[in-house]
User: What shape does this take?
Amino acid sequence: MILLDRVTKLYGRTNTALDRVSIHVEPREFVIIVGASGAGKSTLLKLLTKEEKPTSGKIVVGGLDYDKLRDKDIPLVRRKIGVVFQDFKLLPGKNVFENVSFALEIVGYGNREIAHTVPKVLDIVGLKGKEKRMPGELSGGERQRVAIARAVVRQPKILIADEPTGNLDPKYAWEIIKILEKINHYGTTVILTTHNQEIVNKLKRRVITISDGRVVSDRANARYTNEDSK
Ligand code: ADP
Assistant: This one.
């Protein structure tokens, strides 16, 4: 469960990035966040991952009250939340398997667990057989699949996908969205930000629209029009 209760975030004294935002997301939901550039979407995601702190308001994610967390507890948050970015952020010197296994190595998984877990996740994202490829030998869509595999390999409760199709051709974009749906189907809450109206309208999911730091609409099975992106 994700709860934001009247969350405000100021940068400096006057720049209000978020203004009393209240959002409640149930476990296993698939939520799309839309809004024009500068609306406050990235700030919202950074509050969830604890890269930023709210100026006021309450945030609770998976039972963790962010007010009460110390810096040493941040790994607990990172365990609960996987993140995928528009620009993939793969390690260029590591192959597909290693990019994913690295996420396990750094938290102390042993070789047997890695050998057991990584192939399963690569299968889910459709990269079976491409374990040895380097990122430079992959298409954009394939790179994003690696990034998704890496984000979910520790089985986070929540997957944040921040414009995951922003750098992809339309034909690859929908494949990535289908993988997000599959991961959601397995039980992970998905928070997706996108500017792609076609994707929003095809997905038929809950859409939260942010404008000037405020939630201006929050609707189930919503459509998204040009008006929303202004
Ligand atoms: P979006 O992701 O919807 O484009 P952002 O959350 O990045 O929106 O930005 C919301 C507002 O906060 C904008 O006015 C932006 O200029 C401002 N902002 C974002 N990050 C910072 C920062 N680190 N310092 C100062 N202002 C920021």
